[in-house]
Design a protein that fits this description.
By secondary structure, the protein is mainly alpha-helical. The strands form 6 sheets. It has a 3-stranded antiparallel beta sheet with strand order 3-2-4. A 3-stranded mixed beta sheet has the order 8-14-13, with no helix packed on it. It is extended, with a radius of gyration of 43 Å.
Length: 751
């Protein structure tokens, strides 16, 4: 559309009006000629969805192969050598952060494949589908054959030399005047020449003879042209990519909002199920002899009514929450902001078109003036900065006008934004497209300026028409994208209304069915033997489950520790130490490997391996944090990180004094054996410096959970010993003392 090409594949030929007697004549199939394109060949490698998934999930890497020479293997397609047991033991699953997005990208490719095929068909036979499920060598041979076949098709045959025709001799017959005739004819001829000299004779204009452009001027103009076109192409690629990305983000936002709202509506309510369980337990606890009494039945009917009212109150509260969420989505300005950003991109695209037009105009004028042998004008047009005028709101106040009775999803904000784009286009056309009209036939010699230069005016007119066509396509494209975003937003609002209404209507019916079943059992005097459930909006009677007793109370909540930000609790220290011990028992690990471990631990939010402050940290921030612990910067050594030092600093232990560390070392030596390899039981008997401190203050929160304002000392000692425990079960007390000395000197800590 930006190129101004009329697409015959999109607009079908008009059909005559239908006839009541004869059937409609079939539409004549119009075979469109292949459009010119720089695309020579489009190779499409086709792989089944199942094979793509199998190729994706079975990859293995060697963490010790820093240069990645032979690090990549596959469980199914490229298994590691079985005789190399050491290599097989080192191999780990390849990190794949985009695995969750694979199915989405396969689905997007399946949806857009037909449109891409239709678009490529307009340029001739450039599409070459190839089956890529075979081995690499076979696929390469197929691709090579397709390339050679396309090259052969694009290579024109060499023309056969034509035999040179022999020149024919022309014979000229000259008729001499007869004797006696020369006198009268000669006098008449002389008289005619005198008459011609006396009259005004109109001399025909001399034909235009172009002057050869100097090679230096030609090279300079060619360099200017190539530079402007290359810059134009680079900027246009960037801006068009930004337009597509913003459009895709708006579509994804609509989809994510819809799915999130649906998940909220389908979220189960445990408060309702607790009421149902409590009522069923009370109902089944009544003796069978008492059930037949009329007063008991009346009481149970009243309680069933109270249960129904309580369930409806909870349903109303959920409905109000869902309506508030729907109102927040409808008031969200994401699409409005996106439409304004889209228009800003289109204005910048228009600015690139203006730059290209002005550069092309200068090249055309210099070339044609040089070709005509005239002095090139020194004055150039002042650059037109539309972006600066757009930012200064010079185009505001001109809303986009629609035709009468034209349906559109545009809002007032969208019309204002598109109106600014239309005003920018009008400003550019009024400023740039000012070339003079073609002179009337016969008056070419009387004109001056650009009109007097042969060929220049025609080139300027062509560039003006092209600029107007591309500028008009910008408005149409901007309106299409913004209207698509608005239609999707409207569909989202309608879908949310439909989901909300259907969800709570079904819930009302489910509550009615539950109460009806209870009242039926009241009248029959039976127990509710099977478990009753309210699954979101459905009433379910689980016939595989019998219930009589009240649901037991939930287990008490595990005590938690209140620590400074980014500091690990004792439970987190123990889990991370166990994980890192299995990955690097010696303590030394590559920086990138440790960054990956912390990033994966933060991503597993359900396991709570790290505090909540670590979850939003990107790998770059984790790398900047852990690089301060890096060691081994000498030449010939690979920089590594001692994860025990990192874990010790994140434990937020109280800093010991030198005397406390000396006593700790002396107590460890008193147990006998080496302080670098003490048995775990003997190391646990050594008293640590933080055990002598007062226990942390504890309190109960509103949920009845115990909160400690600090580490639990008993668990903290076990977690610290885990960090310095080797694979053989011994503890290196000397390393513990050394890391404690480092923290005392200010060498550790998250800061």
């Amino acid at each position: 559309k930006l190129a101004g090409v009329h697409d015959v594949h999109v607009h079908p030929a008009p059909q005559p009006p239908p006839s009541r007697l004869a059937p409609v004549p079939p539409e004549d199939e119009v075979v469109a000629e292949a459009l010119p394109s720089a695309l020579c060949l489009h190779v499409r490698l086709h792989v089944d969805k199942e094979i793509s998934l199998r190729r994706r999930v079975g990859r293995l890497v060697d963490p010790e192969d820093a240069q990645n020479v032979n690090a990549s293997f596959h469980l199914e397609f490229d298994p590691p050598p079985e005789d190399d047991t050491a290599l097989c033991a080192r191999l780990v699953k390849a990190p794949d952060p985009d695995n969750a997005d694979l199915l989405t990208r396969i689905s997007s490719y399946s949806d857009e494949r037909a449109l891409l095929t239709s678009w490529l068909s307009r340029f001739g036979g450039i599409l070459a589908p190839i089956d890529a499920t075979d081995v690499i060598e076979t696929v390469f041979d197929s691709v090579n054959a397709a390339v050679e076949q396309r090259i052969l098709a694009l290579t024109p045959p060499e023309p056969e030399p034509e035999p040179e025709a022999e020149p024919e001799e022309e014979t000229v017959e000259v008729e001499l005047p007869a004797e006696g005739e020369e006198g009268e004819e000669g006098e008449e001829a002389a008289g005619g020449e005198e008459a011609v000299e006396e009259e005004d004779v109109e001399i025909p204009p001399r034909p235009f003879a172009p002057v050869e452009v100097h090679v230096d001027v030609a090279n300079m103009l060619l360099e200017q042209w190539d530079g402007s076109e290359a810059q134009f192409e680079l900027n246009m690629r960037r801006l068009l990519r930004a337009v597509r990305d913003d459009h895709r983000k708006a579509v994804n936002w609509v989809a994510l909002t819809r799915n999130g709202y649906l998940d909220m509506l389908q979220r189960p309510s445990w408060e309702k199920q607790k009421l149902v369980y409590a009522f069923q337990a009370m109902f089944n606890s009544i003796d069978m002899e008492v059930r037949v009494i009329e007063e008991t039945k009346n009481e149970l009917h009243e309680r069933a009514g109270d249960l129904q009212n309580s369930l409806w109150e909870l349903a109303d509260a959920q409905r109000e929450e869902a309506e508030a969420e729907r109102a927040a989505v409808m008031e969200d300005t994401y699409v409005t902001d996106g439409s304004k950003m889209m228009v800003s991109y289109l204005v910048e695209i228009l600015q690139q078109e203006v730059h290209r037009y002005q550069a092309t105009e200068c090249v055309l004028r210099d070339y044609h003036y040089s070709r005509a042998g005239k002095q090139v004008p020194v004055e150039t047009a002042e650059p037109l900065n539309l972006v600066e005028m757009y930012v200064a709101d010079e185009f505001a106040g001109n809303p986009f006008e629609l035709e009468e009775e034209e349906e559109s999803a545009l809002t007032d904000d969208d019309k204002e934004a598109l109106g600014q784009l239309k005003a920018a286009i009008d400003k550019s056309t009024d400023t740039l497209c000012v070339s003079p009209d073609f002179p009337e036939p016969g008056t070419e010699g009387d004109v001056e300026g650009d009109a007097a230069v042969p060929g220049l005016l025609k080139g300027l007119k062509v560039e003006e028409d092209l600029f107007n066509a591309r500028a008009g396509a910008l408005v149409r494209r901007g309106r299409e994208v913004i209207e698509d975003m608005r239609r999707r937003e409207g569909q989202l609002h309608a879908r949310m209304d439909a989901l909300l209404g259907a969800r709570f209507r079904a819930e009302m019916e489910g509550v009615k069915a539950l109460v009806k079943e209870i009242k039926t059992r009241i009248e029959s005097g039976e127990r509710l033997l099977h478990e009753l459930k309210l699954n979101v909006s459905d009433f379910v009677m689980d016939e595989d489950s019998l219930t009589y007793a009240i649901v037991p109370k939930p287990a008490p909540l595990e005590a938690r520790e209140q620590l400074p930000p980014f500091c690990l609790s004792t439970t987190q220290l123990a889990k991370m130490a166990a994980w890192l011990q299995s990955a690097a028992p010696g303590g030394q690990v590559l920086l990138e490997v440790l960054v990956g471990v912390f990033h994966r631990a933060a991503a597993l939010a359900g396991l709570k391996l790290l505090p909540a402050e670590w979850i939003p940290l990107a790998p770059s921030k984790l790398r900047a944090l852990l690089v301060s612990y890096q060691t081994g910067d000498r030449v010939g050594f690979v920089p590594c990180v001692d994860w025990r030092r990192v874990m010790y600093s994140l434990a937020n232990l109280p800093e010991p004094t030198v005397e406390q560390l000396k006593k700790l070392l002396a107590a460890a030596k008193g147990k006998g054996g080496s302080v670098e390899a003490m048995p775990r039981a003997a190391a646990a008997a050594v008293e640590m410096w933080f055990e002598k401190m007062a226990p942390p203050e504890s309190l109960q929160d509103e949920n009845g959970q115990t909160v400690f304002k600090g580490h639990q000392q008993a668990l903290l000692k076990s977690a610290v010993l885990d960090m310095f425990t080797r694979s053989n079960g011994t503890v290196n007390i000397l390393h513990l003392v050394l890391y404690a000395c480092s923290s005392t000197q200010g060498g550790g800590g998250v800061e």
